[in-house]
Amino acid sequence: MECIIVILFFLALYVISNAIKKSRTHEPVSEGTVKTPGKETSRFRTGSASSKVATRWIKPGNEVIVAGRKIDGMIYLGSQPRQDTSWNRDGGAFIDPGLPVAKIGSDFSGESMPYWPSYSDINPQARATYLDWLAGGRSDTQFGPGYVFLYFYGLERRFFVDTPAEEEKRLLVDEVERLLDVYGENHSVQHYLGAFLDAVRVVMEPADHAEPRFEISGYELPLGLRVAIGRMVKERQPISADWLLSWYIAHPEHWLRTAATRASHEFRALFKLLFDDRFPKGLSIRVPKRLLRDHSYSSASGTFEADLMPFLEDIPDISYLSRPLTVAKEIVEEATNALDKYSRFLGRNPEGRDTIEAYALLPERLWPLFPCAEIEDLRHWAEEIIDAGGLSPIEEIIERLEGAPPEKISKRQLIGAADALARLSIGLAPDPRFALRSPKPGEPVVIFRLPEGITALEEVNERYKSILITIAIGSFVAHADGMIAAKERRALENRINATDISESEHVRLLANLKWILTVPLDLALLRRRLQDVPENARHELGQVALAMAAVDGVIDPGEIKAIERLYKAIGLTTYRVYSDLHALTARSEPITVRKADGQAREFAIPPPPERNGKIVLDPKRIASLMADTVRVSSILGQIFDNDEPEEDQLETEEDTSSGFPGLDAKHAALLRELLTQPHWEEDGFAILAGQFRLMQAGAIETLNEWSFERFGEVLIEEYEGYELNPEVAIEIRNYETTNAGPEN
């Protein structure tokens, strides 16, 4: 019996021993190698108590193999020093070979890691993923920002705690700048890495080597900028345009509009030109009494602080000055407004920066700085067309500007073509902003020379519009017999020449007349345009047609038939033609036969009017009616071309009916949908923006700009998709509720 018990005891020991061995074979185990120049290779096993390696910094260019991953230096290897265990954290940066590492890393997002990650605290899966990221070049954006911070903790510690040589410091700074460039879309990465770079610039950059940076900052002015400008102010050096703009952009209370960010290079160039106009010797700033005090760098890992005061040398603190920023804001607004059309074109055509159409929308002062070789080819072609009579198919003009034949011709394209040609002092008719209709495919347009010095289409007054309506109606009557008589053409030209308008308006009207006489007025279009116009206004327009037909004092039967068609087209009965004719033939005063001289006792009876079918009209009544066409045009202003909804119109005009003044209908509708939930995935946001025919990035910029201007904060923040600022969202909902109309 005792033998059986002994046998069972040893059998149990054997089973337990095998179980322990089996469990150990499932531990994550991998070999590691450290190779440094001139030293022996040491081997260790991760997950083994005997694998301790002395803590050391692996310099750039030195190869390290950890858990089978080859890493090119710039890391700490070994156990964490005790002095760095503040706040119960290990500092994060030290890769301890004694800790287990999984064979495969799959936690790409890093969601298993805490907010302040530490290599010693994260699980074996996350360690494997981190080592994969290090070995893979440290640039793969599918890995979460937690791994970037694990790596960055070592870089900042090496710079400030170990204080290496200047050459290595520069390598560390270059590496942080690279990381910021790759991962800078993450707000935390942008904030902490930006703070590091700001601090090291104070430490490393000599006073005469500091360069302005055009970077949006966080909640306070960057220390590096305050130091650089403070030094200039202390030495009473005027501030340049670049430094002032850098100051403005970095200031937390100022915000650049979309045009300034979308066309950043052009904006900076224009800002400098405008600044130099006002301050050719630079902007002088008074020296503030307050000095920079008590500045230090707080590490992102939270394990140390670096005192920066030895580098500040009694520098004035410019962060409390307001006048320079007021000056900057004025110039920023002027430059931004000048680039508005150009920016909107780029918003619709992200790849169109180097096109003729884009170049034409640039402020003229920027042309020498942003040249376009194709513009001279366009000028040469246009001059040849003008010399040959000025008529060209509209498709050919659009193709030359856009590089491809248009599938359709929109009003936006016509306005773009007119603006592009105007930059060359060449005009386009029909006038795309004030045409009775746009040219149809296959129809010609007129290009012509604008007066010298005119490189942009000017706004026109009501007199211009009234004459345009008048010559359009007159051309219809002139077309009545199938040909334009010389006297009719002269009468229409005289109508233009006799009006007090600018030289540019005069030239543009003559070109529009040429187009109208080439392409007859479309009565069906006129009928559609006038269907909602009051009858009295349509009647006055018919009288204008009568007056134009009678510019020579008579109306022949062919012209009367044309006027009957016109009256019918604009919704008037044809019998009114004859009542209106009767009104124009009635004499306003007795006929003078002979002036009384007190001697003559007889007078000659005037001969009867000729019976040749022509009706003789009263020239005074006609002149009075023609003079009243300004009032007629003000009533009929809505008949100018407005056939299609324009993207530009939706983007630029405030839609007060949207409930959000300052936002057009599309962006207002998108905003309402966004407010239905606090967070949007990136794909969901893109789909939603597409439903309103809006580009995702442009919609975010527009809504954030609108939100900042009204509530002082942006609405949409990028965080694992897009997150709405809850406080701003509440304010927007309250704003809409407060300002809702009675029907809401």
What do you see in this structure?
The protein is elongated, with a radius of gyration of 40 Å. The longest helix has 23 residues, at 2-24. Mean pLDDT is 77; it is low at 19-51, 84-90, 602-612, 641-657 and 740-744. α3 runs antiparallel to α4, α16 runs parallel beside α18 (503-518) and α16 (462-478) packs across α24 (629-635). It starts with a helix and ends in a 6-residue tail after the last helix. A hairpin with a 6-residue loop joins β8 and β9. A 4-stranded antiparallel sheet has the order 2-1-4-5. Strands 3-6-7 form a 3-stranded mixed sheet, covered by helices on one side. Among the domains are: 339-449, no CATH class; 462-587 and 611-639, Orthogonal Bundle (TerB-like), CATH 1.10.3680; 653-738, Orthogonal Bundle (Arc Repressor Mutant, subunit A). The chain has 744 residues and is α+β, with helices and mostly antiparallel strands.
